[in-house]
Amino acid sequence: MTDSKYVLVVEDIHKSFGETEVLRGVSFQVAKGETLVFIGPSGTGKSTLLRCVNQLTVPDRGKVWLNGEEVVHSHGKINLYRQKMGMVFQNFYLFDHLTALGNVEISLLKVKKMNKKEAKEKAMHELERVGMVQKANFYPAELSGGQAQRVSIARALAMDPEVMLFDEPTSALDPELTGEVLDVMKNLARAGMTMLVVTHEMGFASSVANQILFMEDGAILERGTPEKIFYRPDFERTQKFLSKMTELYGDLGQKNG
Amino acid sequence: MDSLVFIQKQLLPALLEGTSVTVKLILLSIPFGLLTGIIVAVGRVYGNKTISMICRLYVLFFKGCPLLLLLFMIYFGLPPLGISFSPIAASVLGFVLCNGAYSSEYIRGAIQSVKVGQITAAEALGMTRLQGVLYIILPQAFRRALPGVGNEIIYLIKYSSLAYMITCIELTGAGKIVAARYFRFTETFIVIGIIYLILVTIATKLLNFAERKLYYPGMGPTSFKG
What we know:
The complex is a heterodimer of chains A (257) and B (226). Chain A is of the alpha/beta class and 257 residues long. Chain A has helices at 46-53, 77-83, 100-110, 116-129, 145-157, 175-190, 202-208, 226-231, 236-249; strands spanning 6-17, 20-31, 35-39, 61-66, 69-70, 85-88, 163-167, 194-198, 211-216, 219-224. Chain A is globular and about 55 Å long. With 226 residues, chain B is mainly alpha-helical. Chain B is built from eight helices and no strands. Chain B has helices at residues 2-46, 49-64, 67-77, 87-113, 116-124, 129-159, 171-182, 185-214. In chain B, helix 1 (2-46) packs across helix 4 (87-113). Chain B is flat. Chain A binds chain B through residues 54, 56, 75-76, 79-83, 85-87, 89, 91, 93-97, 106-107, 110-111, 139-142, 152, 155-156, 159, and chain B through 115, 117-118, 120-128, 131, 135-136, 139-140, 143, 216-219.
């Protein structure tokens, strides 16, 4: 359970909002450098699950271990864990009053307590990784959705996280802008980043995921390699969902495959 | 001609002294009033039940209390209880309590208008709630609250004349004394009015400058040009 081969272990997460049970006992493990992709119909708790991992949403029951240490919500402690789990949101959530550079710098200055020069160097390096150096002095309102999302990835990477959590990173983007964000994510995965990704981008899932987890009604219905999930799923429901996705978004691999 | 000589010889020297007291009252009250407003607003939005309740009661009380009555209570009502202030200190305290209550309402509204994702993103980066509020929420909220808070500062300039009622000889008080001595009310009050107008104009310009300086793209349409 606290096996050192896993960076992240999630065990039996339950979460209800009022009467609605959103997560009904979800468990999984992630080895270093692995990419796990969560797919499934809307409203099945995928986003809530990611938020339970870094405790932005506190689970009712269940545990999360990061590098063998239990992630607990006791104050002070949780902030240390969150630094190690970078998160990218569907709507970017860039800080509106700061430039792209300022967005990446702020946590280096205030959380990591770096000095100005160090923070700027590090921030510029992260912006370079996502191809956004030339927009460093632009405000979020002046960026396209794809550019904003790349900046938010740089902001998360700046904290040198052990795991990156992506919550539908391309769902708010125009179709022609998803590619630039997915490319950044693919490069990250190739560079050995450990990633959890909630997405409807089946092309990305099939080409990058080590494991795909199909979620329905707050539980993981089945999991396996892309090969297995896409071509030999155990459940008809998985099959149905995938063919619906294909109908909507075109063939696997056709887009960004 | 007679009036001009009076204004030059008797009135202006007295008013100058009074103006310096008024400016002192204002400059002391603004920062503490703002600070109070920010703390109370943050307490109301982010504090636990008790803190939030205390902040709500504070606003309720000082918004409901006439400022003159408040000044009387501080200056005349507290000494029997063993707490006494100089006229200036009592005035500043009254102004700060009043200004803080009103400003906190503008700041609270501005805090609540900041998108919830901003604090979520801050916390996801490992910031504490306090860091998120200080570095992410307040800078955005303050810019949005500035027009309203600025209005309160303009009010403050004008209600600072109430300090005269607790023996703090500021601009209006200094003028009234001269006017009564020489029986020259018309000239005196016109000149005093002009001086307040100048003070308010300067404050307005400074506030506009601050608004321009603190603007960032995406805040919405601008009301200033250039």
